[in-house]
Each structure stands twice: as structure tokens, then as C-alpha cells.
Amino acid sequence: MDYLPKDPMMLMSSVNMLLRDEEYDTLESLCCAFDRDPQEVKNCLLEQGYIYNEQQKQFRPVGCDA
Predict the structure, then answer these.
(1) For the chain, what is the radius of gyration of the CA atoms?
(2) Is the confidence at residue 31, as pLDDT, over 70?
(3) What is the pTM assigned to this prediction?
């Protein structure tokens, strides 16, 4: 993958896949590799109803993030 998608659903899917497959240890390291600000990614996906769960290392729907 050369870049993180701009479409929010594709972005969420890509980030979750890269973290799940252990390509990257943290959201911060993933964002650094793709020259994206982690907070910008979190804010973009929060606007779509998804929140980042640090323990699970994935974005999940708000309310299902426990």
C-alpha cells in the first residue's frame, strides 16, 4: 500500500487491517509511515462514528469500543 485512503470507510478498513496483521505496532507508527497525523485520522473516523480502541488496536463503532 502506497498511501492511506481518503475515503473514511476504506481508511478504517486499511488501518484496522494493517494493525491486525501486525504490519505496524501502533496507530502512531502506522501514521508516521504514511505521513499522516494520528489525531487527524482519529478525528476523521470519529466524524463517521468510529473511535480508536488502544487496547484492541482497532477502530470500532462508538459504543462498541469496550
Answers:
(1) 11
(2) yes
(3) 0.89
